[in-house]
Amino acid sequence: MKKLIYVIHEHHATHLHFDLRLQMGGVLKSWAVPKKPNNIDKRLAVQVTDHPLSYAKFKGIIPEGYGKGLVKIWDSGNYDLIEKGKDKFLIKLHGKKLKGNWALIRLKNNPKNWLFFKTKS
């Protein structure tokens, strides 16, 4: 079975943020995370437009328009999809910086807003 990839881009646009991207259904499902992910805190993750799989290796400068600014790969690796629902993804990350079980849970107040955090199990 082919391994699923993930990448987190450090994006120096108007405001520094981190773009979480998970390979799903032939694209990279994407969330903008305003603060650097860590093993302790829950982070807001705003769902944004899907990106092509080829974008997983992108690093460089977006010269103009939406997303203008420097993009670096902050973390990358493979992940296991443990559970997938309409409002919840449970994943196990096998990255360079992030490892272990993580959750993405949709917030009820806005369908684009999710929480991204490390779980204990």
Secondary-structure blueprint of this entry?
Elements: E1 4-12, E2 16-24, E3 27-33, E4 43-52, E5 60-62, E6 69-84, E7 88-95, E8 99-106, E9 113-118
Antiparallel strand pairs: 1-2, 1-6, 2-3, 3-4, 4-9, 5-6, 6-7, 7-8, 8-9
Form type: globular
What is the topology, as strand order, of the major beta sheet? Answer: 1-2-3-4-9-8-7-6
Please compute the radius of gyration using only Cα atoms: 14 Å
The total tally of domains equals: 1
Class derived from helix and strand content: mainly beta
Share of β-strand residues: over 45%
Give the tally of β-strands.
9
Question: What is the first-to-last residue Cα distance?
Answer: 24 Å
Low-confidence stretches at least 5 residues in length (pLDDT < 50)? none
> N-to-C SSE series?
EEEEEEEEE
Give the % helix.
under 10%
What's the number of helices? 0
Report mean pLDDT, rounded to a whole number. 94
Q: Strand count, sense and closure of the main sheet?
A: 8 strands, antiparallel, barrel
Describe the structure.
The structure is a single chain. It is globular, with a radius of gyration of 14 Å. The protein has no helices and nine strands. The protein has strands at 4-12, 16-24, 27-33, 43-52, 60-62, 69-84, 88-95, 99-106, 113-118. It has one domain (4-118). The protein has 121 residues and is mainly beta. It has an eight-stranded antiparallel beta barrel. It is 0% helix and 63% strand.
Task: Supply database-style keywords.
single chain; 121 residues; mainly beta; eight-stranded antiparallel beta barrel; 9 strands; globular
